Amino acid sequence: MSDINGAPNSNPNPNPNPNPNKPERPPLLKKYKIIADNRPTGPHFPSVRRISSTPPSSSRFSSESHTTSATNDATFGFGDRDYVYPSFLGPHTTRSRVNVKSTSKSQRNQPKLPARSESMPSNLSCEEAGAKVGSKMKPKPKLKAEKDLNALSIQVSNPASSALSGSSSANFSNVRRASGHRYSWILFLLKFICTLSISHTLYLRNEVSKLQKENISLRRVCSHVDLASAGIMELEEVNLLVYFRNADSRTVALYMAVFILIIPFALYKYLDYLPRIIDFLKRKYTKKEEVPLKKRIAYVVDVCFSVYPYAKLLALLFSTLFLIGYGGLALYAVGDGSFTEAIWLSWSFVADSGNHADMVGAGPRIVSVLISSGGMLIFAMMLGLVSDAISEKVDSLRKGKSEVIESNHILVLGWSDKLGSLLKQLAIANKSIGGGVVVVLAERDKEEMEMDIAKLEFDFMGTSVICRSGSPLILADLKKVSVSKARAIIVLASDENADQSDARALRVVLSLTGVREGLRGHVVVEMSDLDNEPLVKLVGGELIETVVAHDVIGRLMIQCALQPGLAQIWEDILGFENAEFYIKQWPQLDGAPFEDVLVSFPEAIPCGVKVAAYGGKIIINPDDRYVLKEGDEVLVIAEDDDTYAPGLLSEVNKGLFPRITDPPKYPERILFCGWRRDIDDMIMVLEALLAPGSELWMFNEVPEKDREKKLTDGGLDISGLENIKLVHHVGNAVIRRHLEGLPLETFDSILILADESVEDSIVHSDSRSLATLLLIRDIQSKRLPNKDSRFVPLRHSVFSQSSWIREMQQASDRSIIISEILDSRTRNLVSVSRISDYVLSNELVSMALAMVAEDKQINRVLEELFAEEGNELCIKPAEFYLYDQEELCFYDIMRRGRQRREIVIGYRIAVAERAVINPAGKSKQRKWSLDDVFVVISSGD
Hints:
Distance between the termini: 120 Å
Number of helices: 28
Largest sheet: 6 strands, parallel
Oligomer: single chain
Strand order of the largest sheet: 3-2-1-4-5-6
Shape: elongated
């Protein structure tokens, strides 16, 4: 066993612990009665005490005793935590103790055990430490060399920690010292200036009073005083009194100025003590920690400046008035003019900093300089506020944050690729009234929207387009565009997927229903999925009109596949450039049957009646015997709403015409290239329109095992299909070898769909459709080199004399190819490629939205015409209504069409490129050919 210093212990413990499991208590040390004079005086410490690794700031002992204590500490080998000798055994470093008052007598009578040091190892128990200290009761003298060596080891023991703590504490103290020095220098400078000014002013006042007293004494010494001089003396004494009165008021003004100047510094320094003083005066002593008063005042000021827009202006106004008042008070105190003159001078110094150059005297000059400096600061702040206000106003105008003050306008919510076509149609519709106002609210920058609209290069014909940046989901942004005063609101679908787009449309409808002022006009919502339409109508009620874009285009493509050329007819009817639907009431027609109403409009074609007795239900293609009643309205196709009116009845000669019935339906083979998300709805429409035994070939990249699940999830009962049979093929429509595996020459119609995978990108979708079209046409031309040898399909046999239908068959080598095009700029490329027909989907949807926005009743008409049941648009050959080279007017053909329960609305002659809807000169006679075709509204029976 070795001692504390590391030497072997020559005197082992004579009384070992008999029970090694029981810890041995350290021996109690006795105090000597006589303490050597060279020992340090002070209170007696317990036998063992704890010291800190950091030396105390003040020590009662010499550096030698401190080094000795550090040396003894280092010999234990416990780092910076150790036990030291009792006070009477040798020199040591004294530390201030914390006296803990015991709560009970039993605790005071308990023996004190050695306390554990903070740096003591955790595996050393108190009993072991006590035993070590007890074994070294006697102090052992140390040599000087040993002391130096131990002191050196203490210094080198932990240099990193000491350096780190020293550097961090030094940096912190330096920062605090530097900031404190700056603060103290500023206060010292302000105090010095105030003290110097006050002292100089008081000195001048004292000199003036001395001179006045000497003047009075000299006058009293004079011995020769007559009455006149006495009168003069009296007058001077009165003036002196007035002067003294003035001098007293200036002194008060000086003291007030000094007091007002000192108050801010005193409040800034001692403001936090004000609540304590108030509590002391009220004798309320609370120990709860509260936020300092200065912080609370700063918080209140910050909130006021943030919440109230005019707080900064009012604060600046108050500062200006305070500076003028305080400056006037100070000038009055150091000058010789009146108080009102001092106030005016103060204002002139604030307004113009150069006016103080004419001041005379040290005091007035000092005050005038301070007032001018404050005036420059105030005007700089005022200039900053004005500049910020102008910048904020310009920024709000640039970003589209200002309010739109319009009424009876059309509001468009959202931004999509259809917006250009929509604005074009709305401008054409407002042309008759000299133009209107269209407001666009979207989550885009105003400048970007205006630049995109300017790229359209379209003449808006007097219609103003106003763009505002905001969210349709926020009521404040809706109020900014005068949503309650709009005559129609159009909600565009977003560029997200169908479900997300419809969910956003639903939230927009909820926001519109929350407008407090209510809505004057109706809401037209563009939906992406037919399954989400009932939910939006349930939320919006009667004000909501929905246009399911995907469903409309799908149905239109099927109609165009079964009746080639129908896409151009729909493009003319839906747009406002040619003829469109209008509904209006004509009281002069009350009591007239519909067969007479049909030929009563020289510039329009009646198509139906809005029956007032049935709650405003629109009946398309009614019976000829239906008599118009009061309140009924007539549905017509006309050029514009102000271009038609009923006239005199024209003389109509029905004559004899061929009684040809419609040919029966034959089975067809149709190919779908691509996959749409509403392809299940298209299959259901084909099931209702095709004859039994028809085949639908589906060619896309969707795995065959996943198709049945997707169709079933869409609501299609595959096992319940009676008229069509599904044939699945997997492949890519832009790869030639995949297309060559299909019998492309045997299909009656081929529909190239905008595939679901690329429908979000217009360029990619149109490029894919165009590539598929060119590949199919090339494959068909190589498989059928002899075009004259091909046969005519059964469903086209009735059109054998129609040049229009023959041209379409020859263009695509027997099959009718219908391509879905999203961008109107792709139309020129498609027309060059000799495609039979195309559907310009985005433009047609924009036209439908514009028509429903102008009159929400038109939506009922479109829904019925696009449906698989009821009335529909059809193309019929001329041989159904006339003989070759027969001379008839258009009214005669309309009368013959009524014999077939049809309404003839237009025609296309054999040599024309486009069909004519609502032709002019309906009573004019002309010759017709069997190569001509007619556009009719048929009941579909």
